[in-house]
Amino acid sequence: MGIGKLIEEVAGAVAAEDAVEAVDPKAGFLTKAAAAVAGFEGVNKLTDVLQEKEQASNADNSSN
Questions:
Q1: pLDDT of 44-61, one tens digit each?
Q2: How far apart are CA 16 and CA 6, in angstroms?
Q3: Could you tell me which residues come within 8 angstroms of residue 38 by beta carbon, excluding any fewer than 6 positions away?
Q4: Which of 46, 42, 47, 1 is nearest to 19 (CA)?
Q5: Residue whose C-alpha is closest to residue 29's, from 61, 5, 58, 37
Q6: Interatomic CA distance for residues 35 and 26, integer angstroms
Q7: How many Cα atoms occupy the beta-carbon half-sphere of 61 within 13 Å?
Q8: 13 near 32, Cβ under 8 Å?
């Protein structure tokens, strides 16, 4: 795991927690923790999807 990947994951967790705070300022610890985990995992999934699309695009370009 590179430092860049770690920074992306932490940023996703912080952004998700901030979003929960904006929607519900009285959100409890478990709600904020769940949002942080979802943000952390969401960044991983988004990164995987973008890498797959990039690889597919590169494969299409190399076959032409």
A1: 899 889 999 999 888 888
A2: 15
A3: 16
A4: 42
A5: 37
A6: 14
A7: 6
A8: no
CA 42/CA 16 separation, integer angstroms: 9
Q: How long a stretch of residues is the chain?
A: 64
pLDDT digits (tens, 9 = 90+) for 26-41: 999 999 999 999 999 9
Scan for tokens 């430092």, then name that residue: 3
Spell out the residues 6+ positions from residue 37 whose beta carbon is closer than 8 angstroms to its own.
13
CB 12 within 8 A of CB 38: no
> What is the C-alpha to C-alpha distance for residues 32 and 57, in angstroms, rounded to an integer?
37
pTM exceeds cut of 0.90: no
